[in-house]
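Below is our example:

___
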Amino acid sequence: MKLFFTILMSLFFFDNNSSTVFSYNGKSIEVNASIGKKFVGTYKGAQGGYLELHADGTGFYKYDYAFGPCKNTPIPIQWGMIKDAKGSAVRFNRKYGQSYPIFFKSTAGARFRGCKEEVLEDFLLVYKNGTIEVSTSDDWKKQ
């Protein structure tokens, strides 16, 4: 009976869209992929790089170019966004539309930014015309 009550309580009172904690610049950041469902998909441009976001909070990040000791292979990631007080993804109003901070965590040993950082912060830019782009890329747009 106690188990049944616990399961019932978790269904009605707790957020089943699990959050994950990433360590970024010495701070713990709670992120959640379920609040970013409109961003799920593939972003690419003219070069060979891309960002692929899956609904389950996983995906792949592949740079257009690799420098130094880094291999230019897809980096398996977990991703998530920060929730605001209303339970939506944090966003900033800009002249062109809105920007949404997003965090990527490498899950297979590969790293970002010169093969040194496990977590990368980026922004998804949503333009007034509906186009969505990745800010750190020259031309990655949602397909």
